[in-house]
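Dataset card, provenance and construction

Sequences and ligand SMILES were collected as paired inputs. For each pair, a complete structure of the chain with the small molecule in place was predicted and serialized as C-alpha cells. The example below shows a pair involving zinc ion. Curators did not alter the output after generation; any descriptive sentences attached to a record were derived from the structure itself.
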Amino acid sequence: MQELLGERIMPSDLVCGKEIDEAAARAETGQTRYGATEVDPQAGTRRFHDGKWYYFCSLECRTKFMGSPETYLEQAGN
Ligand SMILES: [Zn+2]
C-alpha cells in the first residue's frame, strides 16, 4: 500500500547519499501542473518514479538514477 503521510524526514539522494532539503528542492522545482518541466534546480531536484518522489542533489544524480532506477532502489533497500 502506498502511504502518503506528511513525513518530515530528510529525503536523501539515492545516487550519492546526500541529504536533500526537501523544501528547498520543492521550491526550486516548483509545483508545476504543466507537466514535467523544471526550473534550473540548484538546491536539488526530484523525480516522480513508481508512485513516489525521489530527491536528488543535482540533475546529474537524477540522470544517473533515471538511467537505472532499479539499481539505486535496490541499494536503498526498496
Ligand atoms: Zn547527489
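Derived descriptions for this record:
The CA atoms of residues 15 and 40 lie 19 Å apart.
Residues 13, 15-16, 18, 56-58, 61 surround zinc ion (CB under 6 Å).
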